[in-house]
Design goal:
Elements (H helix, E strand, L loop, with lengths): L1 E2 L2 E2 L14 E6 L6 H14 L4 E5 L6 H7 L3 E2 L3 E5 L2 E5 L2 H7 L3 E4 L15 H10 L3 E7 L7 H8 L9 H6 L2 E4 L4 H9 L6 H9 L4 H26 L11 E6 L5 H15 L2 E8 L7 H16 L3 E6 L3 H11 L4 E5 L5 H6 L3 H8 L4 E5 L7
Parallel strand pairs: 3-9, 3-10, 4-5, 4-8, 8-9, 11-12, 11-14, 12-13, 14-15
Antiparallel strand pairs: 1-2, 6-7
């Protein structure tokens, strides 16, 4: 039942028409100031007359964070009994009954107490958003599912609590809270992140400078990718300009293709760019069994090196490459050396020359053919 602007029946959120907006504050590690920034901006909205409440706050004993929360209404936590212990979790039902305009929910990747209605806090957030309530939440970059293996390789720490990448992709706003590794280490030494007994151990482990540098780069790169995807989907095609490099490797059933793939992957890695792999299939020509198997191997190799495999049917290879380059905003194209004779090139222009005529802002990389590279 809805009275005024408030839902009195907690089940009514299922039928609420407007979905809430989600702003995520993300940083490279604990201590960068995500929660503090969230609280400060929420208090500014409170002063403007927005109905703001705290759904879940983790201060971790940080005085500055606790002070920043003063003046904001706090929804009491749900008490959950487990044997002789009483544990607490965010009270999602209480938030739905309160029906504020904006709720602050800390630590998005948190795993709820076993037996809770939902396993993960981000699932609670999705319920709150479905009820038409706006949400501000916080998360560290290492909690993204797709970065789990990379973070473990960098830091030696396997992050158990993770969120699907789609949560970040679906957010209405993503705010990067960034500080230098030196500033973060100084905060740690001053006792602003962990208690004194944990400082030295943290500096020798997770908070080593090289770890923080790598995590900071991951955070900034992830947001850059996120922003570019938004720009790509919302900007008219004729006005969009790719900020990041994008590499397209053009392969065939020729044995040189696996060599092209590896060269393209190295180029993409050096440029820290997206990688695409294109195969233009002539619909009038049937592939042999060996050719089909080789192409399948190239597709698997593309996936292993982090590339997106694209298959296009066309009788005109040059036109297909040009159209794909424009569709995916390609900035670099990797091609194998043509197998035409000099007489053929004199009588008819090469694919490279044709591409140069239509792709004015794309760099072409011609890789020498090696028949023994299979």
């Amino acid at each position: 039942m809805i009275e005024g602007n408030k839902i009195t029946d907690s089940s009514a959120y299922q039928f609420f028409q407007r979905r809430g907006k989600h702003r995520i504050y993300i940083g490279m590690s604990p201590g960068v100031g995500k929660t503090y920034r969230m609280l400060q901006e929420a208090k500014g909205l409170l002063e403007e007359g927005i109905d703001v409440v705290i759904g879940l706050l983790e201060t971790h004993g940080r005085e500055e964070t606790a002070e920043a929360a003063s003046g904001l209404e706090l929804i009491p936590r749900q008490q959950i009994k487990r044997g002789n212990h009483t544990l607490t979790e965010m009270d999602t039902e209480a938030i739905l009954k309160r029906q504020p305009q904006l709720v602050l929910i800390d630590e998005l990747a948190h795993t709820n107490v076993p037996g809770s209605q939902r396993e993960k806090r981000y699932q609670d957030v999705e319920v709150v958003l479905a009820a038409g309530i706006d949400v501000f939440s916080t998360v560290n970059i290492q909690h993204l599912e797709s970065l789990n293996d990379l973070v473990a390789k960098i830091t030696g720490v396997v992050v158990r609590e993770r969120i699907p990448d789609r949560i970040l992709d679906e957010a209405d706003e993503v705010v990067v809270v960034d500080v230098t590794p030196e500033t973060l280490q100084e905060r740690l030494r001053e006792g602003k992140i962990y208690t004194l007994d944990k400082i030295e151990r943290s500096l020798q482990n997770f908070f080593q400078r090289h770890n923080l540098v790598a995590l900071r780069e991951l955070a900034l790169r992830e947001i850059a990718d996120n922003l570019e995807e938004i720009a790509e989907s919302t900007t008219p095609k004729d006005k969009y300009c790719s900020i990041q490099e994008r590499v397209l490797v053009c392969i065939s059933t020729h044995p040189n293709s696996s060599h092209l793939l590896r060269r393209g992957a190295r180029l993409a890695s050096q440029m820290r760019s997206r990688l695409y792999v294109l195969y233009v299939n002539n619909p009038d020509r049937f592939l042999t069994k060996d050719e089909s198997l080789y192409l399948e191997m190239c597709e698997k190799l593309s996936e292993q090196i982090g590339g997106e495999f694209i298959r296009v049917d066309s009788n005109n290879i040059t036109t297909a490459i040009a159209q794909t380059a424009k569709k995916y905003f390609i900035t670099q194209i990797v091609l194998g050396q043509t197998r035409r004779s000099r007489w053929q090139l004199l009588l008819r222009s090469s694919p490279v020359q044709e591409l140069l005529k239509v792709l004015h802002d794309v760099d072409l990389h011609i890789i020498a053919t090696n028949n023994n590279s299979r």
